[in-house]
Task: structure prediction
Amino acid sequence: MAFAVGRVRALNPWELSKAVPCVFLLLSGYFALSDRRIRSFLAAWVGRSACRAILPVQFLALPYVLYALLLDRFSPGGLLELLVYLNLPLLVLASRRGRGESLLADFAALLLIWLPLEMHWVAPIWTWPPGQKGYFLYGLLATLLAVYLFDVLRGLPGIGFTLLPKKSDWGLALAAFLAFVPLGLGIGILSGFLRVSPHLPSPLSGLVRMSGIFLVTAIPEELLFRGLLQNLLRRWTGRPFFSITVGAVLFGLAHLNVGSRSDWRLALLATLAGVAYGWVYEAGGTLMAPALTHTFVNSLWMFLFPR
Result:
């Protein structure tokens, strides 16, 4: 898929071949942690000592080291900043082990994973290919970090991280998509935010781009806003409607940081979409239904309303 994307974007094949091992490592961890048996094994292994709990997080820096050395773009300062980013939320949650649950620690760790990326506080260490700043690589890395910290180390129930949708997930995703699209299209077109300009790619290109949306946009964002934020809010308040609403509003506000300038119309559409994603997360019990819905919505926007 990486080579197919590179061909669509006319990237240098030789340089792309140097970046692919990093992507392979990140996606290997991605798929491995989606298996409940592997997460259970890791939880039992790291539970035996504090040193073991710390070790896996340090290995998350290896994809960057491989990427930077092969592409001759290594930055000692960038590596140090990456290690700080990886270890701060680890220290927050590790300090609570054996001392019971803490709402403050949970949300502090969540913010330490999310805000540095959302606010662009971390260095742009993924400097190839030019112009993209490695956003998707940070997204994959943050997903691995969040799943390890909250599922393996913290043992937070109900996250639902998996990459294997059930039949019911497809049904829920389709129902949510069909419910949201008329409202989203109406608001988007009437407000002038959406302008129809169909750009239908080839079947292969379309499949590759949808797969990319699913893996590097939908899964990380649904893990953050539904699997963690909405899940924690519901767990601490016992109010599903409240947790869906707050998660959706924060999801919408996060989209004010998208693009060169803030646009309230995008934030409104994202909030409404977030309600749909939150509803199917509650109904399906895993990240698959909201991630599929998210993928369908983003793909529709990309193919029919390119900006």
Remarks:
- The chain has 13 helices and no strands.
- The mean pLDDT is 90.
- The CA atoms of residues 256 and 262 lie 5 Å apart.
- The two ends are 24 Å apart (CA to CA).
